[in-house]
Amino acid sequence: MPKKKKKKTGSKKSPKLTRILRSVKTTIKDNKNYARRLTSSEYGTLLRRAYFTKLTPSEVRLNLPNVASNPHFKSAINLTQKKKYDDVYSALTPRTNLSVSINWAIGLLLYQHKLINEFIKLEDKITKSILEEDYTQALQYLDEVDSKCGLSSWSIGIRGSIYGIEHKFEESQKYLQDKIYDESNDNDIFNVVCKYAIDKYDNNSLQVSSGATLRNQIIRSFHSELQHFLIYKIVPRDFSVDYKINYEHVLNYEKNSSLIDIFKVVISFLSSTVDTNDFEKAELAKECIKHLILNIKYHVLDGLSSFYGIKNKWEHKKEDFQLIDEYSAGNYVNVCEIANTKSDRYINFTIFELVAKASARINYKTFNGFKREILEQLAIILLKSSGYQKSLVEVYSICHAFSGLPWFQELHFLISREAEFINEKKHNYLMKLSSVYSEVNSPRKSELLPNSLKKLYFESCNKSINNSLSLRLFEISEDKDINAFKDSIFNNLEKNRILKYKAKILIEIGLIHDAIEILEELVISNDKISAYDGMTLLVDSYIEMDQGEKALELYVTEALKNINIALRFNTFKICKVAEGLIKSSKSICVPIVLSLYNRLVGDDFDSALRYSFERYLGNIGAAKPLDITELEKSAGLDKIHYFLNYVCIPDVMKLSFIFENGVEIEDSRVEICKYLIAQNISKDILGNEVKKITKSQAIRKAVKHVDNSRIYADTSSLRDNRSQSYRDIFELYVELRKKDYSLYSDEKTLAGIYDSFDSSILLPKAHTIYIFGLNLNEKNLTFYKLCSMIRDEFTFGDKGLNRYLSTRIRHGVLPNKIRDCASIENLVTALQETTKLPKSNFYWKNRLELSSPDTWNEIDKLLSKFTLDFDEILNEVNDQWLQIVSLDQDIKNLQKGGSKTKALFNYSLSLVETYMLQRTIDDSSDYDDFINVALDWLWKRTELNLKRVKDNISTNATNRFMKCYDSLFEATNKIASKQNCITELQDAITRSKHLLSSTLDSIIPWFTRAEVDEVKEFEISTAIDIAARSTSVNVNIINDYTNQINGTHLTSFVDIFYILFENAVSKSYLSNDELIINITFDDKDDDLQITVENNCVKITDSDIRNKKLNYYRDAYGNEELINEVVQQEGGTGLFKIWKILSRDIELEHELTFEYINDETFVLVIKMKKISGILIDENTSN
Amino acid sequence: MKILLIEDQQDKRDKISNFIQNEIEGDFQLVDKESLRGGLKEVVTNSEYDLILLDMSMPNFDPDPGINVDSSPESFAGKELLEQMRLRDIKIPVIVITQFSSFEGGSITLDSLSKEFHSKYNDFYIGSVYFNSATDAWKNSLSNMLRSLL
After folding, report:
1. I need a surface site. Which of A353, A814, A984, B56 has the fewest CB within 10 A?
2. Nearest alpha-carbon partner for A625 in A659, A655, A601, A651
3. Best mutation site among B9, B67, B84, B132 for testing chain A: the one with the most A CBs within 10 Å?
4. Which residues on neighbouring strands pair with residue B54, listed in sequence order?
């Protein structure tokens, strides 16, 4: 019997591959450049390069089995299975384009498909174990994955999160040390990835809340390839961010990682393409899916192949459909009970989502343990109820911790949709992802299938399931058949669901007016989830019907009632409507809509908001913002208050011509704040705002000196309405610091360092101390992350240091000033556009009138070289030195791959440094105290940086510039012996050199902190004036106290008088016009006594009232009691004064107060050793 | 021809002004403003301009040491002016002249910003010129744009 001819497969070495591999040998043999014998490693590199560059992408995939046993390819194929990690992410394979990389990865997955299929089963078991809180079992499965497939950052991430949930902090750090650090041979990138992977779970959701900070650091500091890789690997995923991962870059690292990480990156890439407009990428994805589904059984691949129309057979489970039908019928108790009976079994996410929605509606407690925890948080998110933000961050945190598992990815897609609509495109992307990842071939899945498959899909469902309510609902939705609701099957459909789907169909077929009628019924439903669905549809319908004002009114009313639902709407679309209404509308909702977007989403409509502020006032005939308080009846008090609080802010009002200048805008804002404070709205925050404005106005009047400095950072966002996220983390830290962490190894290490050195010596150096492998406990980590976020706001915030550095120095200002020194003498010429070489210097050509063209050519060359050298130094100073670099300790050691290696503004943090700061603030410190300490520290870091800049300009740059001049001069000297006439040129060189030298001297003072809102010294009357204007009270200063107080205490004194005046207003029961405050100073020896006396409404019981004040007298100075009450609001003013005087200013003092008669209250502060805070005129200290 | 130059740096203003004088033959009037508010007020109250030459980064308020609130330049003040013009239906041709070749730490290039401006302000945005005193490229580029207008 003749032998059957073997079918040609990829496993047979192709002639092309053989030829390529041989050609490498021949090339080496024939090439004289290879004078020495190549090492095996060098030879391997050449072979692999030839493989990846000379084969087509599909050949790269097909030939992988043929090179699997080749010793030079083994490492790239076995990866971490060899249990060595020193070459993970290194150049096992060369950098290639996306198509080649992905084909190599697919080849590898297919070659190892048995292992991958085993992994998929184990992944499923791990998910089940985690959801059932059987963490021991989950860890065993992870061991199995590692042992079969090799260690992966995927398994490290899950393992670390399990340790985190179980509070096995020390264990996770030991694992990191023993398994990774000890085995990785200082593989920096691998170590960083593993460190972030193992720390993915944290109780306090810090990884998620500081995710934006980390992302921005990476974007600012690393070149694109490493940047995309790090963002893919270590930054929590955030669908609201416009950052598209470049998988070509990611794969160039990831294809040299581990089998599991490669599988994960391939799935991630394929999933990302469901949203792509790039035809080639989509085609590449389709090809990959076609190959993978032949050998790998994975539900996400099934979903992808359905999405791309590759698959046309589906399995449907009856029990899933039964539950979906119960849900559709509104039998929510049944849904929960059925789920409860299965609670010991795995529940796929699609079903879990339905159970969550059902249980949220009826407040039914389903499941136990971890599943119950997620379900409860999800209910809060779905209902947008109290605690919404906290729940949202916590669930995001869980999603991040287990982001390697599809179940948790699906959870992430759901809450991202629920949290923020973002825009149509992103919303649809999330819908597609949910559909692709869903294990259930449900009726809903039909919505996102290609049209060509829909009919087939419904047939497939109908074959498996009889008479399904939900299936029928999606069928008629697809057919847009409104009359089909008469079908008796829909008698069982829940009434709100009928309304919603009817409305949706009516909208689809253009009967929007009819849809509105239905939706207006739906939005008043007690079923909140359905009502919210109705609201979003109703707003869209109003917009569709050109009823923009109605849409805005509904949106604003609901958003002000419950701010948590604001982002459930299509806010971008709503803002577009508002923008279109600016010119004509008299609705207060127009500016409010735009302001809500600014506060909750971003700055896309900031310009429209500014315009709408001005036009709204104009349209309603108001001359100034406070005029709108008369519209209470028509506009509604909550809307008026919102408008005044959030729309009438200086940044919005700045372009309005109802104000003549900036001061009028500030004055208007102060009046608005005072009005709102009187209405009891945001008293503390608005009070601080008023103080800040009035203080800065007073200082501007007082300070007349010319300030040359250009270094500034506006940090008001750390204190005003925008500071909430920082305040939340600080509060978390305050809670954590109550616990004892003294036995934690990081606490011991850091405390050891702190206690061993004098802090004044240690602090300036602390940022340079790097302790490898030190892992922070939750208290230290929280504080570290908070400092990192504050640092980022200080440096890269909207009005941070970088903005001033950029606009006041880097862009044009410094380069022009320096370049002018040379161009004024015509020593430099402009560069040619095409060659980027200096143009010929015609000025000196004409001026020198040399007889010999050769001599001129020589001079022209010298001047050309001078131009290039001069510009090189200038560019280095401007573009490289004057940059800010700020990296957290964990990624600092990757900086060698960074783009800012010469940056002189270094704000990278070390753990020692933030620990020292932590020790600087005591238990009584509140958020404002912390901000004072943090800003003080950041300015100290800035001073160090400024010193480096000044030193570098005065020595390094100056020397190099001078050398540049000297070289030119010396070179011209050689020519001067031949041509006397070039003396004129040499004189110009000398003049220019001297001018540059003095210019550099004049530039150096730019690098000094600008003293905006700062004074060196002040008279106490200034503080009284600021506080009096902030509280609108009349104050008489009976006698003068003219000693100058150190400027650093101005805010403290303003705060003291502000508290006293506020107390006088609130406790006197007099109007501000009637209230009279007299202040007297008594200056004896080194003591200063300040007596503040105010009138009050006549009382009949001054003795009783004085007795009642005993509580405050007794408590005053009792630190423990004060620390407790000072954090609270109301009735704590006097204690705050104690804190300011004792802790902030550190003045020994006494405070007494009493009603001295029925109409007068007197408070006396006696401050001792006052000279300690005065400016000594003799020493200027 | 009446041109409005909105630019806060004296040095750059002089260079542009000198260049315009050499470039435009015949009568023309050049008015300059130094801030976003100053520029916007001029644009809103005076529609007779044939062209606006606009800096990208400038302060919000005109310099006035006595009452100045915040004199530091805003990175995207020029963009704000373009946006205000769009919102107010003002369609005077605008050429942006900026010393920034990139924005937001290099993440946005001038080219990409210009593309965005072309799509958003198509009916009055002419183009962007990268101003760098080290080269004459800005002059060529501005000259070409002016010629397309004249």
Report:
1. A984
2. A659
3. B67
4. B6, B96
Contact of B61 with chain A, judged by CB distance below 8 Å, is answered with: yes
CA angle at A206 for the pair A895 and A146, rounded to the nearest 5°: 70
Beta-strand relationship, B108-109 and B102-103: antiparallel
What stretch of H or E contains B29?
Answer: strand B29-33
Give dist(CA A658, CA A618) in Å, integer: 9
The whole-angstrom distance between residue A539's C-alpha and the CA centroid of its chain comes to 30
HSE at residue A146, side-chain half, CA atoms within 13 A, is 18
A877-903 pLDDT, tens digit per residue, is 998 899 998 887 777 777 665 556 789
State the residue for tokens 């989950």.
A138
pLDDT at A824 over 60: yes
C-alpha A1034/C-alpha A359 separation (Å) is 59
Which tokens sit at A805?
């550095």
Between helices A911-920 and A778-796, what is the axis angle to 10°? Answer: 100
Q: Residue A650: list chain B partners with CB under 8 A.
A: 69
Instruction: Give the other-Cβ count within 10 Å of A309's Cβ.
Output: 14
- Residue A789: in which H helix or E strand, if any? helix A778-796
| pLDDT, tens digit (0-9, with 9 covering 90-100), for A1086-1110 | 899 999 999 999 888 888 888 888 8
Here the contacts of A12-19 (C-beta below 8 Å, separation 24 or greater) are A12/A66, A13/A63, A13/A66, A14/A59, A14/A62, A14/A63, A14/A66, A16/A55, A16/A59, A17/A51, A17/A55, A17/A59, A17/A63, A17/A66, A17/A67
pLDDT at A8: 44
Q: Which residues of A159-168 are buried (b: 16+ CB within 10 A; e: fewer)?
A: bbbbbbbeee
Q: How does DSSP assign A746-788, residue by residue?
A: HHHHHHHHHHHS-HHHHHHHHTT---TT----HHHHHHHHHHH
Is the sign of the CA dihedral A584, A590, A591, A595 positive or negative? negative
Q: Which residues of A touch B135 (CB under 8 A)?
A: 830-833
Tally of CB atoms within 10 A around A996: 23
| Nearest-angstrom CA–CA distance, A303 and A235 | 26
Query: At A763, is the pLDDT very low, low, confident or very high (cuts 50, 70, 90)?
Result: confident
- How many CB atoms sit inside 10 A of residue A156's CB? 27
Nearest to A816 among B11, B107, B135 (CB): B11
Give the C-alpha separation, A467 to A454, whole Å: 18
pLDDT at A312: 80
Mean pLDDT of A156-160: 96
Task: Specify whether the CB–CB gap between A549 and A589 falls below 8 A.
Answer: yes
Nearest to A801 by CA among A710, A681, A713, A900: A713
Contact A969, A986 (CB under 8 A): yes
CB contact under 8 A, A833 and B135: yes
Alpha carbon distance A424, A572 (integer Å) = 9
Parallel, antiparallel, or unpaired: how do β-strands A1076-1084 and A1034-1037 relate? parallel
How far apart (Å, rounded) are the C-alpha atoms in residues A901 and A883?
A: 9
Q: What are phi and psi of A1026, to 5 degrees?
A: -60, -45
Alpha helices in A602-737 (DSSP H): 606-620, 632-635, 637-642, 650-653, 662-678, 683-702, 724-736
DSSP string, A499-539: HHHHHHHHHHTT-HHHHHHHHHHHTT-S-HHHHHHHHHHHH
Q: Is A344 exposed, middle or buried (0-12, 13-18, 19+ CB in 10 A)?
A: exposed
B87 CB neighbours in chain A (<8 A) are 579, 582, 607-608, 611
pLDDT band at B111; cut points 50, 70, 90 = confident
Chain center to CA of A916: 25
CA B92 to chain centre: 12
Query: For residue A1150, what is the DSSP state?
Result: E
CA distance A226 to A218: 9
